[in-house]
Design brief:
Nucleotide-diphossugar_trans; 23% strand; 7 helices; Glycosyl transferase family 2; globular; transferase; Spore Coat Polysaccharide Biosynthesis Protein SpsA, Chain A
Length: 249
């Protein structure tokens, strides 16, 4: 079984290839397949994808409909042989070896539905090493981020699509629905995602993100109130971040 990585993108031509390199360079038993969903980019994204064409990468172009619709298009295009799924935003990167490590964890814990690692906030990533650049500011912590997990396909199928009526907090809503399944998981302290901080990414929209989180939490509470059979099992999110290797807090 392969690992499928869904990469939604919008106007990230300058960063997209780094994200793809970080996936395609991974030595994954069974192989990796990437589904890039271009959500109506108006920059050079199409040309970048054409120049870096790879048989392991499928590209879907759609009219601008939002990140939830883009991720849903990726879910709808999952290859039959994909037994594991994860997500990567097109301005972020995976650390080397991360997917193989998570596959090994799930193999060792067949009862677990997913893995969950740490994320490293970083303001500059080296285009050569795909690691935090020398002198980059970094903070590593357990956070609510889709790309920190590797999920069994059966669990992804059970959760269903992303909420297209949410422009902020849609990933939190999705993870809350994951927690409501009560699925067992393997949590670890390795870095699973380098999350790039820059001036125009959505996490800098603090007020909107807070509202999105509150909305996702309210929806989860309403679902669990309406259906007491829903569970709640989530990773332990550390409140105290720690510096990442090679960076500074």
């Amino acid at each position: 079984m392969t690992v499928a990585v869904i990469v939604p993108t919008f106007n990230r031509a300058g960063l997209l290839l780094q994200a793809l390199r970080s996936v395609l360079s991974q030595p994954v038993p069974g192989g990796v397949s990437v589904i890039v969903v271009d959500d109506g980019s108006t920059d050079e994204t199409a040309a970048v994808l054409a120049a870096g064409a790879d048989p392991r990468v499928r590209v879907i172009f759609q009219r601008n409909s939002g990140v939830s619709a883009a991720r849903n298009a990726g879910l709808g295009a999952l290859p039959e042989k994909a037994g594991f799924v994860t997500f990567l935003d097109s301005d972020d990167v995976f650390p080397a070896g991360r997917l193989a490590d998570d596959l090994a964890r799930l193999t060792a814990a067949p009862q677990a539905g997913y893995t969950y690692g740490r994320m490293c906030y970083v303001d500059e990533i080296s285009s050569e090493t795909l690691r935090p650049a020398a002198g980059a500011r970094t903070v590593t912590l357990h956070g609510i981020q889709l790309g920190c997990g590797l999920y069994r396909r059966a669990l992804i199928d059970r959760i269903g699509p992303f909420a297209t009526d949410m422009t902020h907090g849609e990933d939190t809503d999705y993870l809350f629905r994951l927690y409501e399944t009560g699925a067992a998981f393997v949590q670890h302290d390795d870095i699973s995602l380098y999350y790039r901080r820059h001036t125009d990414n959505v996490t800098n929209q603090t007020d909107l993100n807070r509202r999105g989180f509150a909305r996702a939490l309210m929806r989860s509470m309403q679902r669990r109130r309406a259906d007491p059979s829903l569970g709640w099992s989530m990773p332990d999110f550390a409140l105290q971040p720690r510096p990442a290797e090679g960076g500074s807090a």
